[in-house]
Amino acid sequence: MKWVIVFAFLASAVYVHYRGKVRHRLGRQLLDHSTFMAPVNVLMYAFSRVPTTAFIAEPGQHFPELEPLRAHWPDIRDEARRLRELQHIKAADGYNDVGFNSFFRRGWKRFYLKWYDEAHPSAAELCPRTTALLRAIPSVKAAMFTELPPGGELRPHRDPFAGSLRLHLGLDTPNDDACFIDVDGTRYSWRDGQWTMFDETYIHWARNDSADNRIILFCDVERPMRYRWAQALNRLIARHLIAAGASPNMEGDKTGGINHLFKYFYVLRLKAKALRERSQSLYYALKYLLVALVVAFIIWI
Predict the structure, then answer these.
(1) Does the CA dihedral 72-74-75-79 come out positive or negative?
(2) Angle at the Cα of 258 (from 254 to 260), degrees rounded to 5?
(3) What is the CATH number for 238?
């Protein structure tokens, strides 16, 4: 039984690596968080009720409950613009946003509306119209306003969990092909009032090479599954693991357990970065040794 589990894990990891047209270098993928979630994600793909392509054509056909967001996009835009004027769409104030911490270095900013729970108190107060719309759509598990200023970028990455699909609704965008997201080698340029949906476990990246700012509504929408047990597994992982990544906008908002620990983990991360600067060969040798020890431990038990 132990070898069956090991084989299933390795087969899932290989599938995730070769899925799609674009992939990380093998060395990076080996240490990527999506590798450790590979067995669960393969189940999500296998029993998904919606296509498992990089982009989901016509999101409204698969998720008709999302249509009020597109219908009321000017109201949502007005609240996002007001937040930006108040400088509330911003990077995290400390090391309390493990999921997006690396994005802040290159200009990306956010304001959380909800994260696998009810609306943040700050969002309910400052964005009553948007949070009311989201409250009426239970399939939207997480939502935020995100900003990508001129010159901003997100480096190629894939998200760790396939239990959701990513919806982007253009609010205040450059309406320019120089501001785009690339998902598995296909580009999409945001436009005001228009939306796109994609599978965030494909490698994706974004740039704003225009002269104007970009603000969108960013939502994680629960992936519908073919069977009740698969939907229950999806929700179990979301409720007990993904929800622990909640990050506050300001004092009074919820901080998840993972983000409470992140500030301590980041101290180790800074030491690892310092080691990489001194000796890349030693840094990678230690990382691969750690992976080998984990695999050896799994086989031993």
Answers:
(1) positive
(2) 60
(3) 2.60.120.330
- Asked if residues 231 and 90 have their Cβ atoms less than 8 Å apart, the reply is no
Number of separate domains in the chain? 1
Q: What is the rounded CA–CA span in Å between residue 208 and residue 173?
A: 10
What pTM was estimated for this model as a whole?
0.91
Residues 6 or more apart whose CB falls under 8 angstroms from that of 133 comprise: 68, 69, 72, 76
Q: CA 71, CA 124: separation in Å to the nearest integer?
A: 20
DSSP type of residue 139: T
Continuous H helices in 111-256 = 121-126, 128-135, 228-240
Range of the domain at 59: 1-301
| DSSP single-letter state for residue 56 | -
Mean pLDDT for each 10-residue chunk of the chain (301 residues)?
Answer: 79 92 84 86 97 95 97 98 97 90 93 93 97 97 98 96 98 98 98 98 98 98 98 96 94 91 78 80 76 66 62
